[in-house]
Give the backbone structure.
Amino acid sequence: MTPKKQRALVTSLILFGMLAVGFFGLRTFHAFREFHGHRPPPPFENEQPETDVELIRDWMTVPFIARMYHVPAPVIFEALDISKSKGNEEKSLKQLNEEYFPNANGFVETTVKAAVLAHLPPPMSTAPSVPTP
């Protein structure tokens, strides 16, 4: 291959590479400009609370249950006769049972289910949906 043809081939490959980089770079720029990130979850206040207390498991924490069932956490702690302090909010029901009621297996889970069932808020009325024409 002559040096003139070699130079033309290298130049054309460089130009083709620059065009490919420019094309895909612009596509990336436009996609990035359209990206809005993760959207926040819908407001929790508008959701229906869970009503089936049999879904409560021993791995759940009291704040998680309180939020899921729309029952204040102090109500649950009061039913258990346990203070909110000492990091009890981060402990699972199983850990609370082992720490405060070691001889009564499943006592905390049963008590929490009863407390939640007693303090469930009334069901929210939902407006009938209007079919779109």
